[in-house]
Amino acid sequence: MKQIVQIEYIEVAPKEEYEAIIKTVMKQCFQEEQLMDSNLYVSVTLTNPDNIQKMNKEYRNIDKATDVLSFPMFEKEEIASLLLQNNNVIEDVLGDIVISIQQVENQAKEYGHSFNRELAYMIVHGFYHLMGYDHINDEDKRKMRPKEEKVLQELKLIRI
Asked: pTM score, two decimals?
């Protein structure tokens, strides 16, 4: 099976549990968006609040920790175009997702669901940002949220 996700750790201990969740969720995302035959992959970095805050400040000029950051390599329209032009033979990173594991733990407790569900949501959420979706206004939310929920429902990781 081809590699669709590359996982890195910055000041967070590697765990097989994290990797299993990330790989399962990313596979479902790729299937949902019909990217399995592409040569795209996603880079996922797991880190701590200090590092994600530094990245948030550097890249978004927001000096505070956050739960997830996404850095897409393509505009939404470019993805479909590239896949068509290259007959799914693109060899490139779709983008980077950075997640604060501590924030995942905090939010799981806050929202009353499992760590696995919260980490899965962060992966799905980050993935759809890479695909060009957003949630800044209500119209954008109406497009992005159902896609996120569908992936999570397929994996039986629904909200409690």
From this structure: 0.91
* Tens-place pLDDT, residues 60-88: 999 999 999 999 998 888 887 777 665 55
User: Quick check: 137 pLDDT over 80?
Assistant: no
Task: Enter the tokens of residue 100.
Answer: 């604060």
Rounded distance between C-alpha atoms, residue 113 and residue 157, angstroms: 10
Q: 106: which residues sit within 8 A by CB, 6+ positions away?
A: none
Predicted pLDDT at 101: 98
Between 134 and 131, the higher pLDDT residue: 131
**Distance from chain centroid for Cα 138:** 21
Question: Do residues 97 and 126 touch, judged by C-beta distance below 8 A?
Answer: yes
- As assigned by CATH, the class of the 5-154 domain is alpha beta
3: number of Cβ within 10 Å: 10
Task: Place 142 in a pLDDT band, splitting at 50, 70 and 90.
Answer: confident
Contacts of 94 (CB under 8 A, 6+ apart): 35, 40, 41, 42, 72, 73, 74, 79, 130, 131
**Which residues are within 8 A (CB) of 45 and not within 5 positions of it... i.e. 6 or more apart?**
7, 8, 9, 10, 96, 97, 98, 99
Domains in the chain: boundaries: 5-154
